[in-house]
Write a structure and sequence with these properties.
This protein is α/β, with parallel strands linked by helices. It has one domain: Rossmann fold. Helix content is 31%, strand content 19%. The protein is built from five helices and nine strands; from the N terminus they run αβαββββαβαβαββ. It has helices spanning 9-18, 34-44, 88-103, 117-125, 136-144, and strands spanning 21-25, 48-52, 60-61, 64-65, 79-82, 107-110, 129-131, 163-165, 168-173. It is globular and about 35 Å long. The chain starts with 8 loop residues before the first helix and ends in a 5-residue tail after the last strand. Residues 16-114 form the CoA-binding domain. InterPro entries: CoA-bd, NAD(P)-bd_dom_sf. It comes from Candidatus Filomicrobium marinum.
């Protein structure tokens, strides 16, 4: 896949709709860090999120037990979300590839500002989908229409009514039944 281009909405929505369990590598217990509020958002959407941070291992972040490494995670894990720098993304991806069969990993997702073409090529060669320089929280909000409430251009114009979640009128979902 050419990662220089815009990812199609169908590609991103397909990943977010199929995934149930994320592992946030580089998750932070600091409430002002992007990994913290992205984790809080996804938990609020019904996803399971496992924080991976050796400095927080054995402690809880947002009520979820933090793990030392990907190898310590319980199965299943659908998406490895990398909150580390671009250079570290290759090592994290290689760890994920080593555990992909045991954990059932399907996607390597690199956060905003994180891009590693070697990691992407190795992940795709291992049969994994890859997203780089994107945030699942932002993409979920954009695709569900929630992000437009904050005045952000969602790049989508539609008269279609949003799909509401079981969590209330201001919580949208990507697909019925989520």
């Amino acid at each position: 896949m050419n990662h220089d281009e815009h990812y199609s909405d169908d590609y991103i929505e397909g990943i977010l709709a199929a995934a149930r369990v994320f592992a946030f590598v580089g998750a932070s217990a600091n409430k002002s860090r992007p990994s913290y509020f992205a984790m809080k958002y996804l938990l609020g959407k019904g996803y399971i999120v496992h924080p991976v941070n050796p400095g927080q291992a054995g402690k809880e972040i947002l009520g979820r037990l933090a793990y030392t490494t990907i190898a310590d995670l319980p199965a299943p894990v659908d998406v490895i979300d990398i909150f580390r720098n671009s250079d570290d993304a290759l090592d994290v991806t290689r760890q994920a590839i080593a555990e992909k069969d045991r954990l059932g990993i399907k996607v390597i997702w690199m956060q905003l500002g994180v891009r590693n073409d070697t990691a992407a090529a190795e992940a795709e060669a291992a049969g994994l989908q890859v997203v780089m320089n994107r945030c699942p929280k932002i993409e979920y909000g954009r695709l569900s229409g929630e992000i437009a409430w904050a005045g952000v251009n969602s790049r989508t114009i539609s008269s279609r009514r949003p799909k509401l979640s079981k969590f209330g009128v201001q919580s949208h979902v990507l697909r019925e039944g989520d």
